[in-house]
User: Fold these one by one.
Assistant:
Number 1:
Amino acid sequence: MSDDDDGAALRHSERLARIAADPRYQALVARRSRLTWLLTAVMVAVFFGYILLIAFDKAFLARPVGGGSTTIGIPIGLGVILVGILITGVYVRIANRRFDPVVRDIRDGSEP
Amino acid sequence: MGIPPRLALLAIAIFLPGLALAETVARPAEQQATNWPAILMFASFALATLGITRWAARRTRSAADFYAAGGGITGFQNGLAIAGDYMSAASFLGISAQIFSDGYDGLIYSTGFLVGWPIILLLLAERLRNLGKYTFADVASFRFAQTPVRLFAAFSTLSVVLFYLIAQMVGAGQLIKLLFGLPYGYAVGIVGVMMTLYVLFGGMIATTWVQIIKAVLLLGCATIMAFAVLATFGFSPDALFARAVEVKTQLALSSGTPPPEAAQRGASIMGPGNFIRDPISAISFGMALMFGTAGLPHILMRFFTVPDAQAARKSVLWATGWIGYFYLLTFIIGFGAIVLVGSNPDFLDSSGALRGGGNMAAIHLADAIGGNLFLGFVCAVAFATILAVVAGLTLSGASAVSHDLYASVIRKGQVTSEEEIRVSRRTVVVLAVVAILLGILFEKQNVAFMVSLAFALAASGNFPVLLLSVLWKGCTTKGVVWGGSIGVLLALVLTILSPAIWVSVIGNEVPIFPYSSPTIFSMPLAFFVIWIVSVTDRSPRAAVDRGGYEGQRVRSETGIGAEGASSH
């Protein structure tokens, strides 16, 4: 490694350390982590709730709704798929609107 | 004579009760008459994709182009390509076949295959893009000692890819034999050669575009089929379900079942059946699908083809939307097949079973809806589907050898882009030969357990390693190598001892491990071993590993330092 490379690497790690100490960064990380774990927990609960429902109460899911042949299991099963799509949609929307501008600020503000 | 593609293809059939296995012996897959419209339509797909490969080859100059399409794929395109990677022939033919025979149970598979996507998005997608270059091992080894972590990653990637590849090759051979009337060996050979051409010359650019085209074709043909089925019933799903119950009841009656029991059997397709029996197997299977998706190397690799974290995020949203839509369509297609195929003697043999085996439900439905020409189209799409999935797998396996083993472990990173691509291309050829040979070797074997094994391995090795390396400061080199390796080995051993291999393949009477999936044991064990080894790790390396966390975290959250990772 040349001296220039060493210098660049040093400046880069100083920049990272500066960002790590930036309150805006810390707030962003905390908010993002709260949101992702919350949504992950919802997805895990919905899916394994569905699986356990099948394991323990098949008769409930086979109950007809609306007087026809459609059973309650069908909206529930399709609902699990829909929840999966919705969760990705919610996260992407929040990340695009709330997180990206903050990330941009932090990056621009920390330019060496 | 091989086993019917129903089992070969429907790799997830490991979760099926033993009944389906007995069927194997009773109904071997016969070769059909040569299907010219299907062959012509497939030939035009082959020509078009080879044209794309030629175009892509001219744009493939650096290692970044070869492994990651130069980072130039948009979020929307990557979403389609991911969907293409994920919607294999097993999901299209296998899930519609599952619904055709058991009704509701097919929907349970679909939900399991979908719920892994939010997990990838929330926990990994953006971090992968911000930290990695070409393979997930770039991310897993970011702050760790390169050699041990890369060795683990290459070993686990190659195991996952190999099992997945065997299942696809055998499925491809069986399916093409059936659909096109070509001999098994030819079919496997054509898949091997075409896939080699794509990956060898066109690298990730060609592989991505083949996936995109295939995804559009598959979504298009499934949309037409589902639309036609619904149109038959005045766009009332309830009318479709009611008629399906009637057909199933009639079938039970005509096979001599007394009326009350027949009515019960008819109605049973509207609720969960035998698929989920004991809660342990159910949760274990759910874990393998949900977290295994987040550890599949050929899927993770797709996140390096986009320019930044925002595009990585968008690609998951598109992929999840397309995949969810596709499963909705297969649900309608499966029920449509019960009505339009299950009641039509043209599609059934003398014993009342489907001609050509259970996996043919969607194929016969295409015939019932659109005649011979549409049948040919659907067959060609099914072939294209297998080809695209196999190409993605091969590229991922080759990158584990050239980027992780050769460039990082053997040459310690002192390697030029040209040298790395050369090794990668040689590996593609070796992998293709191995895949063809294994495909032929396993022709008569029951390979149904192999895709679910791949998911279990990914959930027990790659996923815990990746997750803790990006999220937990205390994680060390020693921890991930021990934890990941033990998770993978336990998943492998328990699968061998489970009913799918110990009883169905080896032929023992009683399985040593009674559950259908090992993941409920192997995945938590992997997490536990990573934790215990890391917290007790007092080596000098461990201090370096922990010290590197803060910088890694800033980069993974903000993307600083990731710019240009894929463009040089």
Number 2:
Amino acid sequence: MIAFYVLAAVLIVSAVWVVRASKPVYSVVALLLHFAALAIVYFTLSAEFIAIIQIIVYGGAILMLFVFVIALLSSGVAPFQSGPNRLPRIAVPALTSVAIMLLFIAYAIGRVPAVTAPSTQLPLGAAVGTANAFGSVSDFGRALFTTNLLPFEITAFILMVAVIGVVLLAGDAAPYVPTRRRARAVEREMREAVLRAGEE
Amino acid sequence: MPYQALAVPVLNYIGLSAVIFLIGVAGVVLRRNPLIMLMSIELMWNAANLLFLTFARTSLNNAGHIFAFLVITVAAAEAAIGLAIVVVVFRSRENVDVDEIALLRG
Amino acid sequence: MTGTYPLLFAIWLLPLAGAIVNWAFGPQLKRSAGIVGSAAVGLAFLAALLSWGAATQGSVAALGAHQQLFSWIPGYDFGLLLDPLSLIWTLIITGVGFLILVYSIGYMWADDAVARFFAYMNFFVFAMLTLVLSDNFAGLLVGWGLVGLASYFLIGYWFERPTAVAAARKAFVINVVGDVGMMFAIFMIFAKIGSLSYGVVFPHSAALGNWLFWTCLFLFIGAAAKSAQIPLHTWLPDAMEGPTPVSALIHAATMVTAGVYLIARCWPLWNASHDAQLLAGTAGGVTALAAAILGVAQWDIKRILAYSTMSQIGYMIMGVGVTAYQAGVAHFFMHAFFKAALFLGAGIVIHELKDEQDIRRMGGMRRRAPVAFWAMLAAVLAISGFPGFSGFYSKDPVIYGAFAHGYPWLGAIGIVTAGITAYYMSRLFIVTFFGESRGGLNPAELGIKEPPRSLEPHDVHEEGRGHAPAWIMAAPVAVLGVFSVIAGYVMIGSDSPWARFFAGTFRGGSLLPAPFNEITLTIVVVVVMLAGIALAYLRYGTRAALADAPQRLRIETERMPAVLVRLYYFDDLLEWLFVKPAQALGAFFGRWFDPHLIDGAVRDIVEVNTWFGTVVRSFQTGLLRAYALIVVFGAMCFAVYYALAGGLR
């Protein structure tokens, strides 16, 4: 029980840190922490396989993507330069109302009897600790490749589409090789901009 | 051994998921850096995942795990494409401030 | 009634053909338009003469020649009727009209768009013939309206002049009032009797019951508007803005007599209603007297003649109003000749003096316009009722008829008016034709305050345009002058040609024993008339008066009572009662209601739409974050809705 509240605190703090960090790299680190805590929470929910997948895919792959893109963007002169903030003033009240609505729904769901009295009956043929226990790899794999084969195949298709899309979007159409003179001019401009930014 | 009930009431898990989701929404709306916005979206995905797994546990149904797995996959694909878009925008205008990309204005 | 008499088509449609030719080929015809117009009307006159026999044939019930036109609805036939009453009117319209049109060829010689004039004149003749030749009330009404229209066209012929346009409008509006009255009467006739054809309405006129007087009243409203009787008379003096031939034809000889024709045609109704007789007779008598008094105070030659027309038509209305139909129609017949002669003669004088119309600036025209002098002399004596001239033979029967049918006070009015008529017509004649010419004098010496209005366009007398041959204008005037003398002879004797012509057409109302016999009355009227002429001679015609003319005229101008100068303030009353409220209403609608409410409504719709667009547009910020928020917000609203609908609390 304590575990839950500790984990909940970590989750919330790290989430807030993700949102409010001044540098993007800090956000990535906070997000990593968040994912780790989340994986532990999954363990308490008897979802071992998903917990591991969370760490591997999210923490290992997606966050790496973020880090590399941050690195690429930071090579720009002032990639995150701010103009005036143009958010309409109704944003904060709207956000608060969204919060109220969502919390209301959460509370209402929490009072549903079917939810408040969770099932404790054994699923067929699986006890805690055995090979085919609920949430184990074999249990999950059997479900994935028999009952839910179609969603699995479609998701594979989605991944392929995503890869093609990324390659099309961000891949090199034709490499732009600047002349030496152009490269020197760009470098000079960048240095001056940095100096100017430093003087302000 | 039969499964035991959860240590804390289910409402706590639901509330936690809601709070993380709200933090994610706030991050999307209040930050101007597209990378932070994408990370906030990841937060929202994860909140939804938490909810799925909670209900899978309470009803002892595998479908929740399957769905959480597929959610992770799709979230990964979406993050990749989102980042590719950020890269393309950066290439064309050296500036990825989201407020500056408001050209489709009426 | 059915039947055919195809010559009626010729009478009726030849003037229309002339109008159409002049309208269509005006620019090509130029001055020949006058010949086309006169020929069309002249041929119609010949056709009418040829129809004399057919018009007077037949028994009392089915008198005259008929020509059916068409059946609008089965059972309702419309056609043309030529009986003695309509024949008299047709002969005058086409005959006098022909003479006036020939005169106009000369009068309008220098006008540019003269084809338009003759087209309008022919159109007027056609319209007037429609009025008198119809055998049903619908055709009568059509003709009624069309002559009003023709009058509007012709009064406003010189449309560059604002006074002419205003006068035309005034005439038309007052005529419309009369038209509405006519329509009500026709509605009532149709409602009670079920047909509009004369042959059906008059035998069944008893079916009108106690609507009889109201029908007659509304008919009389129409007659009063068209014939310029009080209270619908104010348009006639202003109508003198039109060219003089127009005044002669329309506002003296024919159109203004339409009211007389109407009452004569509806004689069964008038015979049956004593109140209608009282109404018509009184209105006619009062108009005759009031107009004569006004004629004493006028200085514009055409206005004097206009008031004299009003007065003489008052006589005619009084005559037919008291059911002395033959007398009233006879006065119309004589009046057409001498009034046309007066107007055309005045036109010669005006033409000669280069558009001067104020008699104070005339004088001595006897030597300069001899034809006009002699013709107008005959006409003035005729209108006064001098024995031997035509007016004498028709005015007396009218006055005697008033006495004989039981309206002695109307007879007295008639006698007094005869004297006043003699006075002011003699005044006109003497001041215009005798003495020395006063045109060269300073207008102020004569008491003229306002600058002379030149009513005719100035290009009339430009050199190089040539002049009409003098006989074109002189001959018609001479002919009319002669007729002013001899026309009356058809009424001599108790079995006169006139009486035989109209035998069977009318049946007069009940006769009462007259207070005195006809000879006595004639002597009284002659004495009164001679007194009027003598008074005019003493004031204007003696040697001393002629020598002193400018002085006397000036004094008379200054001493003229304001009531007479302002025409009994009648125009001012109408202006105050009707014109100003109408203008205020128009201003209200035009300046406030339309821009604020109607335009305002349209503007408000535009503004609402624009506002709405602005509101919706405010969402299109292009901001990613705002869009994201909208998505989340909307999704959350849906979620709440479904949760609540599903029973979650």
Number 3:
Amino acid sequence: MAASPFLIGCATGFSGDRTDGAQAVVDSLAARGGGTLIFETLAERTLALAQLARNADPDSGYEPLLAELLAPVLANCLRHGIDIVGNFGAANPPTAARRIASLAREQNLPAPRIAVVHGDALASPEHRALLRERLGPALDDMDVVSANVYLGAGEIAAALRAGAQVVVAGRVADPSLTVGPALAHYGWAMDDWTRLGRATMAGHMLECGTQVTGGYFCVPGLKDIPDVHAAGYPIAEIDADGGFVVGKAGGTGGAVDARTVKEQLLYEVHDPARYLTPDVVADLSQASVQVIEPDRVAVHGIAGHARPDELKVNVCYRGGWLAEAEISYAGVQAEARARLAADIVQRRLGGALAMRTDLVGVLSILGDDGGTMLADRPAGHARDVRLRLAAEHADARTAERLLREVTALYTCGPAGGGGVRTSLRPRLNMVSCTIPRDAVRSGWTMMETTP
Amino acid sequence: MTSDSSTVRVPLYRLAHSRSGDKGDISNLSLIAWDPDCYAVLAQQVTEARVAEWFGYRRPVRVTRYLIPTLHAMNFVLEGVLDGGVNDALNLDTHGKSLSFHLLDLRVAVAPSLARRLPDVPGDALAPARAAPE
């Protein structure tokens, strides 16, 4: 009989996900003999937002809901030997680690061994010069907020092998949160491309939380999922060869079936033969799925190829100001009045702002910013229409003109406009490049336990 | 494209499901057939050229189709369709999350015998009773 597989559960798929998913995952892992619990909380821009928070307050800059995520499960994880790995350190992993230590103290738990991964933030003058070389003179004009390289699974695996019970990382590739614990558990070689490729796709299945268990999937009448309001978070069973089965926490809603697994397999994939991560080039071009039993689906046919020579870097910088304003019309000629309102604002702004027009209730998100699709649509007779106008400008005062013109529609616009809402927000822009591996000084440290 | 009197035109949502993903200004749209028969229709008719035309209003720089027959699925990669992407677009849906459902409105020609066993959404604007001839 085959040895029991290694279990990894994932309790969040992004910063902003539900925070009550971990309990059921931990209960399932504990009942099945342990495993690892991971948290993915870093979308592309999340880290830049965290860096801005840290700039304002040196004690912040990590996942704001860290304590809320961990408090309900920390005791059970430590009791059952379930390691915790997350990129919830964001722009400040050391402080996040200290917060977890204090959380353990608050709960009168023995001090956990907490490791901190470092090296993803590229802030030194040498790194700046390297980014300048890769991104060109455009970098000189950017008000850079953050520059982070995607680390792989190596640091996480090493920290776990050294006995860490919690690993706090900032920017690591999402699948590496899974590959790291699997590497530590099975002791695979770092160039065992087939196993790394498989474990990477296991991580890819986990990294978006309920997107593989029925979340973000339902189409009533075409694709229905039971109790999706309580969809469980996913658990992968990874075998010694990297092969895996996708399941979910017991006693939860949602479903894992061939369709949910296929949708997540291809999510954010470009060439299926070349899914690039710092650890490996995973190849799902020959993938197949096998439903073993309800809510347990095996994925076969994953291959792996040698990892990329260089590592990906995201550079976030301050963008312009996004102005958005809305007003509603109802009843006879509502659509015509909304279109007239947009025309009035456009004429008032002249060429000062390039404006996007949406008619919520007619056409609001499928169209392009240039308005091609809306222009092609003949004016209709919709009777409940919300006009939304949006524009961006480097200068806040200029962007604000849109808001003032829409507000003025209250007395100067077409009849019966109501419910004006306006917002003006700074934007973050991003560019990406790659840098050589040997330019990255990554590592991990075990946090000293303070008595 | 194969379309003659012996076929009926049906929207893709009756044959397949789809999910959008985004990286920068690139959108990927999976298209996953319910079964091998549906997949055969997709492989023949939902070509790069057809999808590029369907999304033409977003002026794609390039459209690439990857076939994954073992999943009865294909993956479309549309470059330059997100008005710069999540940080730059003025769209409410800066990720292009809704684009998968635009793809699912594309119509293909299928044999009546296949159409009869496909799921349907009665009352939808593209449902058989109300579908306008093209």
Number 4:
Amino acid sequence: MKVTPIAIVVVGALLATMPWLGLPPFYDSFLYLVLSWVVLATSWNILSGYAGYFSFGHGAFFGAGLYTTTTLAAKFNWPFLWTLPAAAGVAALLGLGLGAVVFRVKRVRGELFALLTLAVTFVLATIVLNTPIDGGPGVYLNSVPVPPIGPTQAGTFYLLALGAAVGTLLIAWTIVRSKFGAGLFAIHDDEDAAEVLGVPTYGYKLGALAISAGLAGVAGGIHALFISYVTASEVFSITVPLTVVLMSVLGGTRHWAGPAVGAAVITVLLYSFTAADYAVAGKAMMGAVLIATILFMPDGILLRVLRLFGYGRRPPPVARSQDVMGSAAHREAVPKEAPALTTEVPVVVDLAAADSVVVAAMPSPASAATRAAAPITSRGSSDVLLRAHGLSKSFKGVKALAGVDVEVRAGEILGLLGPNGSGKSTFINVVSGHFAASGGRVTFEGREIGDLSAHRIAQSGISRTYQIPRPFAHLSVLENVAIAAMFGGATLSARAATDEARRWLQFTGLEDKATARPDELNLHQRKFLELARALASRPRLVLLDEVLCGLTPSEIDGAVALIRRIRDQGATIVFVEHVMRAVMALTDRVVVFNHGQLLAEGVASDVMKRPDVMTAYLGRAHA
Amino acid sequence: MLEVRDLHVAYGAAPALWGVTLRVAEGELLCVVGPNGAGKTTLINAIAGILRARSGVISMAGNELQSLPPHRYCAAGIAVVPEGRRLFTKMTVLENLELGSYLPAAKARRSESLEQALALFPMLKEKLTSPAGELSGGQQQMVAIARALMARPRLLLLDEPSLGLSPLIVEDMFGAIRRINAEGMSVLLVEQNVAMAMHVSTRAYVLEEGRIVAEGAPDELLARPEIQRAYLGL
Amino acid sequence: MSGFAWPSFNLLTQSILSGIFVGALYGLMGLGLGLSWGLLRLINLAHFAFAFLAAYLCYQLAHKGIDPLLSLALIVPLFFAIGAALHWVMARFALTPFSSLLLTFGLTGIIESLIQSIWTADFRKLESRYAEMKFKVGELFVPIPELITLVLAVGLAFAIWAVLRFTDAGRAMRAAAEDAPVAAAFGVNERALSLVLAGTCAALASVAGVCVALLFSLAPSQIYAWIGVVFAAVMLGGLGSAWGPLVAGLLLGISESVTMALTSPSWAPLVSFTLLILVLLLRPGKAGT
């Protein structure tokens, strides 16, 4: 049994004795508020902090739960306690409905998602205000009996909120340690890369939203009876959504206890201002705290304090612009490197068309534990592993791929060559599911994969690396690789995935960097991290995208040796590469792309001597 | 005219250029060739002021530029045609060209420059009011070159102008580049299409993995086995 | 809940007219917000707080006998300076649009407290000589303060459009918004231009604030009442556009007031927010960066 959940329950039990201690009733009410905010902030954080989808709609779920209880208890005379699960249910359903629609629209992330959720809150408020749910004058709950759980009414509410808080914290803690949580954190850093690694991003986001909403609904239900007179304008005001953001950002969005710390600090601070007759200044203080947090402590108080005591790691020194919400929203299809120069000149990373190398399937590693080694297929066997038929992809009228037919044979190393803009990367992106094809078919091991979502393709046994490495910035090297092991073709449990990850770090020579952050690695190491991540899912097809680009000659030699070792274990590799000596040394066959079409195919040394290929690379003079 | 001495450029922890030294004489058409990832674009961006160098000197007609803010490079006489064109796609072709002549000296001669640009690329006449993003790759490349010419520079920087273009258009474009140089403009051209680049230039450097590894006349370089090896693996 | 009732023709046209007026104010309010978001990539929630601060200043100056329209001569330069100063500070930290949203939300809280401490939370109404002025066009009433707002909204949108479209500085700003490094390579001093732009956005907010003071009662809590509908106008109209928020604002204003005439005032917010949601879902590319 883990210590933390026990500690939470024990502390909860101890706190539960408070109403009987004979303290002034003020304490019950004040602590009720603190605990209620703990529930709201922690539940908000489950989607918004862990996955990076900052929502301004928490008020909607709180309000939905609140009005569910109000309606059921005041109008239909349900016993109050029974309304609470209903409140959770209604709020969760609202969340599910919202997520089901919104998460399908890929571009709605970041500030757009935040604004959309805010709009939903106001829509809900208007509906509540104009229908019999409220109707305008508000609803009274004085006639609803308060269950006699505590010695006083205030005590009862306190205990209910305490129960909700303990439950919420336990849920948050469990999520953080689970595979679900790992997936959410991966989504936070780079949703598209996570999807391609096998994380079911749509389903996970939906789950996180539903849980978050349900818990907010419970807090709302309890609050309904606490305030006993509810009005739509109070309930759906901008206070709840913005305060939970403030509390979580202040406390720290990456830690399960961060929002709770923030909730406690803010509630106490606000109260001390109000009590001292500085209520107005209280709001200013909150504003100042928010500003200071965003500028100087984007990771929140809790982690700062923990770090002082030696726990936890310092944050990755990415540009501040990525700290508070380093979500996938700020990554376009091609990521930008964080400017490390302190001058005012913005650093521009020039990105050539990201050619990805399609790596053929990976057989299980020599030191495989749980799986029997896949039979090593002979080199250049005639079994076709992947077949693309007439594959096309257009972007706004530009034909990146114009109907290519490519066969990848099991066990071979296939080189994908061609000048810039010839469609090599696009091919990789389409096969791995990063883009949907505009036309044509792709079959893998006989099955159609063209219309599968990227995470299902990953789970079928295909993995890829990106030319510009896209590691999860906030996760350690080991955790990065473990994600692949958990969600890719191997689909291991969290513990087995960590072991598997370690194995692959050893294979790529990164084992002493296991606890480091990706930004601490140099380019060569980051490329190998990409490689380890691609291999950890035990794929049967690995797509490598210009893995050697940017490396020094000796580093290239090391990489070539590594790729050879991968192949020697029987892996099928397809790689896009420009470094010719590597192409000559490694490939069994090459295909050459030009202007989105297949130009040539065959053994490398033959193909490279052909006049049309030489023209494509060197231009006319050498035809 | 342009002198680059011992230039070091890095992206964060990853070095991209190591001690690059080169010079472009007045009226010269110089090309820098090299494989992907060699650092060619980094070099162009550093000379254009888009990237800040870690150390080294960039001097234009005797004036040192490397510690100036980016918007001062153009006034020193440098104009760039970036890789991938990087036009202002939401603005019209004409507006792009007008932006090219933003600085006062260029602005004063804007109509003259515009006439010259349209004489060079006549097919742009009908596209002046179209948003730049709607043009084809080849047309965009012409706009990008014209935009740079509008700045009336003394040195024109071209970064992989043939990228993603069909061979026929590439020919036309290099013809235009040659004409521009013939009229006295110094040009620094960076290219992956080695043959075309060597064909138009008088002198070439070879850049590999962030370092200059060769320099000389194009024909002589092309005959060398290491060039053949680097590009064809033969 | 009131039912549905067909209004008279007069009532309908008067509603449409008042929808035009309030919509113009939405557009004016949204002009600076949209410019900041579209061209500077900063979502300035404090825009609303600036507007209200200006409104309160106008109210205060009116007490000293200064005509609200004349007070613009003092208020506009003041807020231009404030906006530029704020941007100067914010530009030191590389903020994403989202961080700027949170940060300016904090700033809004501070400004709101400032307003409340000086003028209290009670509603305040600016008594100006324009308040009672109106004239009649046929059967329709055209109140002067509303007309002033409409004129200002249209005039400023036109001015901004003209600057962006026809001047070098405007082109430079648009170019820098799309690709700042390349714009700099052609001599555009993006730093200086963005300060001017930020100052302009704040100045626009202050003009909107003076209009609010002319038309409505002021209370600090009212700052937040505008956020939703103005964001809707900006996103519908397009970021960085001069005419967009005005047109969208008019659309929103008219649909709101017609809804109010047909059913009841409390259904009005549904219109703008539902439109906003639909735009976000169906054309997120247009609404986002």
